[in-house]
Design goal:
This protein folds into 2 domains: about 70 residues, putative ntp pyrophosphohydrolase like fold; about 50 residues, no CATH class. It contains 5 helices and 2 strands; from the N terminus they run ααααββα. It has a two-stranded antiparallel sheet with strand order 1-2. Helix 1 packs across helix 3.
């Protein structure tokens, strides 16, 4: 008997969407009737993460991060972008890796945020959507 592969987060959330009659869209688009609701829910979940961090509650931090991922994957499903998520993430990753400085080290802002180095290139997400 073979090992069962764990479901990725998109598959888990798709199961929930289908069980609760929440849209799963096949073609990429911005659903005008639900987009604002999706944005509001994401903002609420980020607010819960902020509150959990501020009080130092690691359990609530984990809960908020999982909720953010759940809602984010649901947004990929409702915007019909789940089919390109992996390719888009790989493209954004390659772009982010191009942020290294000329010396091969990260270029950092005072607060630690990584900045764009001299060889930075924008991700070509239009190419991903055309496929």
């Amino acid at each position: 008997m073979g090992l069962l592969m764990p479901k990725d987060t998109l598959a888990i959330v798709k199961e929930w969407h289908e069980s609760f009659d929440v849209p799963v869209v096949d073609a990429p688009s911005i659903p005008k009737e639900r987009a604002q609701m999706r944005l509001t829910i994401l903002e609420e979940e980020v607010g819960e993460l902020r509150a959990a961090v501020e009080v130092g509650d690691l359990i609530e931090v984990l809960d908020a991060l999982c909720d953010i991922q759940y809602v984010l994957d649901g947004t990929f499903l409702e915007f019909g972008l789940h089919g390109v998520k992996q390719d888009a993430m790989e493209e954004v990753h390659a772009s982010n890796m191009s942020k290294l400085g000329a010396d091969g080290r990260p270029v950092l802002r005072e607060d630690g945020k990584v900045l764009k180095g001299p060889d930075f290139r924008q991700p070509d997400l239009a190419r991903i959507l055309k496929r």
